[in-house]
Structures are given as C-alpha cells and as structure tokens.
Write a structure and sequence with these properties.
597 residues, alpha+beta, Immunoglobulin-like, 4 domains, 6-stranded mixed β-sheet, 6-stranded antiparallel β-sheet, 9 helices
Length: 597
C-alpha cells in the first residue's frame, strides 16, 4: 500500500515555436498614429443654458493622453466657473493604423445671464505648443420647452454609509432623450480612491421616473469593494458607443437606438460621497474579511467512507448578495488526526429560487487516525453591516467512517506534523553597516551643564501655573456667562459690520437692510439675553439712550425695520427712501450699542 509520493516538476523554458508565435502576434498589431497633425476642438455641451445650469466644456484632440499637458487653470470670465471633472482616451482603427482620441471634461456654470467665451490658449502635445480654439457659451433666463440639459451619467448606490471591506452594488445610469433615444457605453469605469471595482457590468434598459415623466434609461450594474475609511468620492465615466452595448442587454419598454457611427463622447458623473467606517473590534474565529449578508450551505463530503491515508474532498458553498466571488476561504484548522490542505480557488455557484449566488470551495482532507468519526469543523465568520455584529458561520462537521489498518508510525508522524510545523525561528544577528551617517552632536558638554537646562527644569512649574490660570479663568466665566455672551456679540457685531459695509459699497439694498437689522439685533441680544433673530424694533430702541430713542437714533432704527418688514411681507414693493445715505447715522447708533457691550 502506498501512502505518499513526492512529485518533482521542473520548470521548462518556452519552446522556440511559442516565442515565434508571440512575436508574430505583437508584430501584427497596427501601429499607433502619433505623427498626424494634432487637431483640437473645444465646445460647450449644451451651448445655451440657464444661469447656474451645468454645461460641459469639452476639449478633444487626436493624441495620446500621456503626451498632453494642460495648464493648471484655464482663464475664464469671473462670472463663469470651469472645473475639471474627468479625462479619458479611446482608440479607433483607421487606414491600417490606431488613432488615439483624448477628451478632457470640465464642469462649467455661468452665474448671470450673458454671452461668455473661453479665449484660445496653448497646451503642450508631444512636446510642442498647440492652440485650443475659442469656445462660446450663452446663458439665458428663458429657454425653449424642448431644451435638453447636459448629458451626464448618474451613479447610484444602495446607501452612503458602509464599512471597509463591504461590497456594494453600483448603478451607472444614462438617461435617454425626450424621444427615448439611447446609445451604448464603452470603456465604462468606476473612479474613486479607496475602492476596488469589479470590471464586469450587466447592461439593461429600464424606464425610470424623472422630472415627472418616464424616461428610458441605460443602466450598467456592477459592484465595488470599499478598501479605505473616511469620506470617499465615487464617480463614473464612459464613452458613448452608438449601437455597441458591450455584450448582451435586457431591454424593457420602447426605446430608439440610432444607427450610424458612434461619436465617442466622454460622459462623466458628479461624485457621490461615501462614508466608509472601520470594522468594530471583537471579530470571531475564522474571519477573513467577509463583510455583508452571507450564509453557508451544509457542507458536502465526497464520500462518507474513506480509507486511512486516502484523500477526500469537502465542498463548502458560501452565498451572498454582493461580493461572494471575492470571499477569502477560511483557513483549515491544524489537527493531529487530519492533514488538511488549504481550499482551492472558488467556483461560482448560480442562484436558486430561495438562495442568492455564491462560491464553492473544496478542501482536501487526509485522515491520519482510525479513531476519526467526523470531519473537523472549519471556523468561519462574517460581519453583518445591518446589525453591525459578527456572525458565526462555522462549517459544521460531517460524519465519516475511516477504514483500514493503522499507518506506520513514521508516516503518521510525517502527515500529522505537516500542518503543525511552525516557521523556523530566525537567527539573531547584527544589522549591516548604516548606509548614511546618523545624528551628529554639536557639543560634548553634558546636557545638565548647558545654559538652557534650568529653564527645562522650570517647565513643569510653568505648565502648572498655566493650567491653574486656565482653570481659574474657566470657573470665572462659568459663574459669569454674560461675559462670554458679550464677547461673542462684539465679535459677531464686527463681522456683521464688515458685511454691512460691503453691501453698501456694492449698492445691494436688500443685503444692506438685512445686514443692518442683523447688526442691531446682535448688539442688543446679550442685554436680554435672547436669540438675536427674535428681537423686534421695540426691543432694540428700548436699549437706546432716552435722547436717541425719541430722536434721530430711534427714527433710523424704525426706518430699517420698516424697510425689512416691507421687503418680507408687503405685496408690492414700496419706496423706502435712500437708505444708503443713512449709513453714517446707522454707524453712530451701532457704535453706541457696541460701547454698552
């Protein structure tokens, strides 16, 4: 009877035939066109928008992405903001060559109606200066009813709070036009630092309610795994591909797919902020990083009767909604009665009517003792994000009958100790010589003899006095909260007066009146005390001197409160006089109120 064998495999160099085949395949590839003249286009999509509406400023040129250097900031009018959002490169075959096309997207918004232009500027391509032509954008208050907004992708997830290691479902949606026209996407990718994205996407066309109308929407679904903690940004980008959807697609509803060549326009999405939290402590045995809703099917043994020393396979199926294919199999336990090899690569398991899809792992077990009655339990656990607890999914033991005579002592010892052997202890040794010199000393004088050392000895006393003074001040302010209220009121009053002066300089009447009322309320609030916004005109004038209350000061306060009430509650705009001419008198009233704080 043979209980073990050693198999030696010698690495072989690739045969000359294989090397020639690989070289021929590489030589047969079409060359990349980098010698043609560079043609640059710059456009706004759409070219006409409402103030504040998004328009995509898109720069496209026939060059490789790595050879292009854009300026850090594009000069635009102050009423127009241009912010880079994404960039990408696509390759197209033409005339026996591969021509690269690179696109840079920028989010552009105009704050006011008007006609805006991005002047021509230079960029560096292949080490040479190339001109980006001028682009025009028009902002109008009124647009036609059939106005189409900028085409963009929309990223959706099942939530915004996840744990690190959790696999989440992601949907990249492209809404169709008003005529339910859609086109496929190519080179779709999920962007974001701190995520591991799955490159496999499932495409479908669904009808989604948007802006009170049913819109045919192209949806690509995939999963991403959270690999970092903190606030992470998740976005998507892709090129339009016409009738090419990159594989099979499920269409629900009526849609229109236009023919003709694809325009290969780069589309992107707004970033979606994800809050990734670390896993809490207290993980159970067998935790390999599985985060999500998982379940473990009953294990299946290849046969329940095995001869002593013969291998037998144990199949374990782990199921989960998202990320089942990325599960790391639990490590097998180390026992003297079993020799257990780590699980092989997982095989996908399809979903059933009542169970989600999963992955199957196979462990190879060799019984070493004839007294075995069951396979060992394999510890396994996962973290459930919904309950925020670790769940025990230990693979249960399977009854087994071991037949045969006892193994020879030397073979049994070899098999049982294979898994129990630990790594050999590393021999202690001195480190090598340092490659760089260490720290240098400026003087050989002892530290205790240097002039600054007495101040170091006094530092604890200084720190104690500082803490004592801090605690003394804290107790005083705790007994006199009005001091804190007045201090905060003075600081807020100075800030509000600066905003008041800016509004006056800009001739912003609404802002001037609002800031004036805010300054009066802030200056009077600590005397009651009360929330500043709750004070009315009578409560403000009550704090003025009797002469000012019945004189010009009270009249100024009354005029500003009347103007504010008219702006908020009047049905029609009523002339309130030139309030900017009363800024000097208002400053005098505020100075007197500030002096009382």
């Amino acid at each position: 009877m043979v209980f073990g064998a050693v198999l030696l495999v010698r690495a072989q160099n690739p045969s000359p035939t294989e090397s020639n085949t690989m070289m021929q395949l590489m030589m047969s590839q079409a060359p990349v066109d980098i010698s043609s003249p560079v043609v640059v286009t710059a456009t706004f999509d759409p070219p006409v928008v409402r103030p504040g509406e998004l328009s995509v400023y898109r720069i496209t040129l026939n060059a490789t992405e790595a050879a292009i250097k854009l300026p850090a900031q594009i000069r635009v009018p102050k009423e127009l903001t241009v912010r880079p959002t994404s960039q990408g490169q696509s390759l197209h075959a033409a005339n026996g060559m591969i021509r690269p096309m690179t696109t840079f997207n920028h989010a552009a918004r105009a704050s006011r109606p008007g006609f805006y232009g991005v002047p021509a500027f230079y960029i560096e391509v292949y080490g040479k200066a190339v001109v980006v032509p001028e682009a025009q954008l028009e902002a109008l208050e009124e647009l036609p009813a059939d106005h189409e907004p900028a085409r963009r992708l929309v990223v959706e997830t099942t939530g915004t709070n996840f744990f690190v290691g959790q696999s989440i479902g992601v949907r990249a949606c492209l809404f169709g036009s008003r005529a339910n026209t859609i086109e496929g996407l190519a080179q779709l990718q999920i962007n974001g630092d701190g995520f591991v994205a799955d490159k496999n996407f499932r495409a479908s066309v669904e009808t989604i309610e948007r802006s009170n109308r049913a819109v045919a929407t192209l949806v690509y679904q995939s999963t991403v795994k959270v690999a970092a903690t903190g606030l992470l940004k998740l976005s998507a980008q892709a090129f339009t591909a016409g009738i090419d959807f990159g594989g099979p697609i499920v269409i629900r509803g009526q849609v229109t797919i236009p023919g003709g060549p694809a325009r290969n326009i780069l589309l992107d999405s707004d970033p979606l902020v994800i809050n990734a939290r670390p896993l809490p402590p207290g993980e159970l045995a067998g935790f390999t990083g599985a985060v999500g809703k998982f379940s473990c099917d009953p294990p299946r043994l290849e046969t329940n009767t095995v001869r002593l020393g013969d291998p037998v396979q144990l199949s374990v199926v782990i199921r989960g909604e998202n990320g089942a294919g990325q599960i790391v199999p639990p490590p097998p336990p180390r026992l003297k009665s079993w020799q257990i090899f780590p699980a092989s690569a997982g095989e996908p398991v399809p979903a059933t009517e009542s169970k989600p899809p999963g992955v199957a792992f196979r462990y190879t077990l060799i019984p070493v003792s004839a007294e075995i009655r069951a396979t060992p339990a394999i510890p396994f656990s996962c973290f459930d994000p919904q309950t925020e607890k670790y769940l025990d999914l230990t693979v249960a033991a399977v009854p087994v009958t071991v037949t045969g005579e006892a193994l020879p002592a030397e073979i049994a010892a070899t098999l049982s100790n294979t898994e129990l052997e630990s790594e050999p202890a590393k021999k202690l040794s001195l480190s090598g010589l340092a490659l760089t010199p260490g720290k240098t000393a400026g003087s050989l004088t002892p530290v205790q003899s240097r002039g600054w050392f007495p101040f170091v000895q006094l530092s604890p006393v200084i720190v104690f006095l500082g803490l004592w003074q801090f605690e003394r001040r804290r107790r005083f302010l705790e007994l006199h909260p009005e001091v804190v209220r007045r201090r905060r009121a003075r600081r807020e009053l100075r800030r509000t007066r600066r905003l008041l002066n800016r509004a006056c300089a800009a001739r912003d009447e609404d802002g001037f009146v609002r800031r004036a009322i805010q300054a009066l309320q802030v200056a009077c609030a600590p005397h009651y005390p009360a929330e500043p916004r709750a004070l009315v005109c009578g409560e403000v004038t009550a704090l003025l001197d009797p002469a000012d209350r019945d004189g010009r000061g009270g009249e100024i306060v009354q005029q500003f409160f009347d103007a504010a009430n008219a702006a908020r509650f009047a049905l029609t705009t009523q002339p309130g006089g030139d309030l900017f001419a009363r800024q000097t008198e208002l400053d005098a009233v505020l100075q007197k109120l500030e002096a009382r704080l």
